[in-house]
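User: Quick sanity check before I run a bigger batch. Here is a single chain. Can you write out its predicted 3D structure?
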Amino acid sequence: MLIFIKAHYKIITTSLIILIKIVFLQIQLIKIYITNYMQRIVWIDFFCGLFMMMILWFHTDYYYMGLYTIPYSMYVENSLIGFFFISGYLFFPYKKEMDIKKSIVRIIRKLVIPYLSIVPIIFIIKKSLQNEFVLDDMFCSLLSGKASWFVASLILCHIYITFVCSIKSSFITTAACSFPFLVLVTCSYLNVFNYIQLNIDTTSIVNVSAIILFFMLCGHIYRKYEKYIDNIPKVTYIFIAAILIILKYIENIHDIKMTLYIIIIDNYPLFTLDTLLWCILVIGCCKLLHRVLLTTPCRYIEWIGSHSLIFYFICGGVPKITSIIMHRITETYYCMMPITFITVLLFSTIITWLLYKCSPFRKYILGVDYY
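Assistant: Done. Predicted structure follows.
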């Protein structure tokens, strides 16, 4: 053995050096991967991608079939609330004080600029195709937030949270973000029971933002206690799924309406329980899949999630145009829904990719900054 080692000393030494260099190179590549890719929270991108696909399915279902074949309350409001829940998870300061200046700049870059640059273009195209374009209407819609209630509400909530967090008191932050929602719920029930008649504007972005604020706060609370929630037995998610099935059955049987915009919520406690359990369940499943597979379950869904802002801007127009084309090509059959949906996904992906690659505002629309 010693003779063999002495005879082949140089070869063995050289091989060991090459092996060490290969290992070192692999470590460097992993570090580069972690720095450039894993700085995004992968399970969040997958979570947002799933919910974005649900919203695209909803719009495709409505425009192609002409009706909701799956009731709105079964999944749509859950998907919308999921985005706000994750927005709260990411936006609230965590283990550090909020940098007010940085927060304001980020709101302007990531939300206000895309809202003022992309929404008018979509508004002009949509109204021109319907021969209903009026310049004054566009400005009124933009200023009122009704041109894109989702983004306008996020902008309003983020500004409000930034102001509240500047007080630097967790109690005041919690109270200030819960109070508008509690007021809205109280006023709604006073109206229902005819104790007092209050004229609640169901199309007001302020009223919608009051609901959104509460769920953003829930997202922040989830992150605060995330390590404890992650340690609950996995069998708990089976019970959560069972409770959700029962809640959905009750909502469907009794035709309980749960529309976030325009606000039509028949039962606020049920709405709150339903959406929060849904968020906890889906987040738990996304984390579990990521932990088991050591990567995202589907890179394409993750990509949709990381580009979800642009997908949201076009999630109404693309399904509508695609449905018009499909109606001209063939008769309307539900069996054609999957093909129509895949076509919508394809067109949406191409448009989003082009906007991110070619738009002069691309550096402003790269999604949310992760902490």
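The radius of gyration is 25 Å.

User: Great, the batch can go ahead then.
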